[in-house]
UniProtKB/TrEMBL annotation, chains A, B:
Residues 2-169 form the DJ-1/PfpI domain. CDD domains: GATase1_PfpI_2. This is Transcriptional regulator GlxA family with amidase domain. Gene3D superfamilies: 3.40.50.880. It comes from the Bacteria. Pfam families: DJ-1_PfpI. GO terms for biological process: regulation of DNA-templated transcription. It comes from Planomonospora venezuelensis.
Length: 231, 231
């Protein structure tokens, strides 16, 4: 039995976690060689950027030693994730989990945490479109693609991209037929009501500062890191 | 301030709730005339079909009277949702919330709960592809579309369809421009790694019995309802 562990910390974007978690949980229902867990520092409910609180299945300590996961996936978020870039305890937890894992994944700004933990040096990776530059300042090679694979690392673009990433990962881990069955069970046949994103029409000049403003505010107590990431 | 209330009950499919919840939470961040809550019978964490437990922001009692929501959205699931078709207390909660709402929504098998609550009589509605027939047996007019609108009722197909439904609803509630901004912030520009679902190739004969078997098992103590829905 191999374990896929999702990392939970306070303030995440709920869909960053739940999109790929749903994919992997359905995978585990069809292929019992996989086990899925959600791990956090404590067993207490963690707030999210929605009204929902999330309760993990495990603490990080419970995943040590022989229970070390095969794959670890880190979700992102806005201010709380940016603040976590200076959270040495969380970064050390991520490094420890990643050291024993064959697959290291992230969704959205979760890749900034992987980079801050030193796991993306020189690696191609992606993140939410509005902070691709920040990913570069943390030592990764930013790539504007929906899912980016580089060695053991697989990173997804913003929020909903975690579903695409997880289905691709399901195919790698359990084969394309199983991945297609998972896709069918979660009826992932997207029809965005306003069509795909029209990137040429995106008003980056007004939206990117929203994210970088959040980043600067979240790192107010860490001026050197703040300057490095927002200068 | 208008409230969008998501209904939480034990055993739901996590993504049914969190997909549209994320959309509506980002909407509320951009348009402060909207408020989003997650309501359940008790404040205790509810298990899901993933390793994650979910903690609501409100109890149903807290949404009574002047706090009654403008929109109510009911997520689905597998066995626990099917068992809930015989849960008169939950159905009464749904009826009460719906009675004061302008929008009544569901994701996946959540529409079976709306139908069991008597809210879909003669209305066009959808659900997870594998239980469309069951929806018809509950008095709705089943439609194999991703999102179906009929009067105040908007229903989504299986699991991930809740994201498409919520973006369409965001457009109705706050205008297309805001809905497009929400889509951009959650980077909903889907690229399923194996492409869209190839419905002509779906092996319904082997997968539909999985769902109807779950339904029959979940209603073992309610033989008349079980017979009505699975005969």
């Amino acid at each position: 039995m191999k374990t896929v562990a999702f990392v939970l910390y306070p303030g995440i974007t709920a869909l960053d976690l739940v999109g790929p978690l749903q994919v992997m949980s359905v995978l585990a229902a069809f292929d019992p060689s996989w086990n899925v867990v959600v791990a956090a520092e404590t067993a207490r409910p963690a707030p999210t950027d929605t009204p929902l609180g999330l309760v993990p299945s495990h603490t990080f300590d419970q995943l040590a030693g022989p229970a070390a996961p095969y794959a670890v996936i880190v979700p992102g978020g806005t201010e709380p994730t940016f603040a976590a870039l200076a959270d040495d305890r969380l970064l050390e937890r991520i490094r420890t989990l990643a050291a024993g894992a064959q697959v290291i994944g992230s969704v959205c700004t979760g890749s900034l945490l992987l980079a801050a933990a030193g796991l993306l040096q020189g690696r191609r990776a992606t993140t939410h479109w509005a902070v691709l530059d920040v990913l570069g300042r943390l030592g990764a090679v930013p790539v504007a693609e929906r899912v980016v694979q580089d060695g053991p690392v697989v990173t997804a673009a913003g929020v909903s991209a975690g579903i695409d990433m997880a289905l691709a990962l399901a195919g790698r881990l359990a084969g394309e037929e199983t991945a297609r069955t998972v896709q069918l069970m979660i009826e992932y046949d997207p029809q965005p009501p306003y069509g795909p994103i029209d990137w040429a029409a995106v008003d980056r000049a007004s939206l990117v500062p929203v994210m970088t403003g959040m980043l600067a505010a979240a790192l107010a107590d860490h001026p050197r890191l703040r300057e490095r990431l927002t200068a």
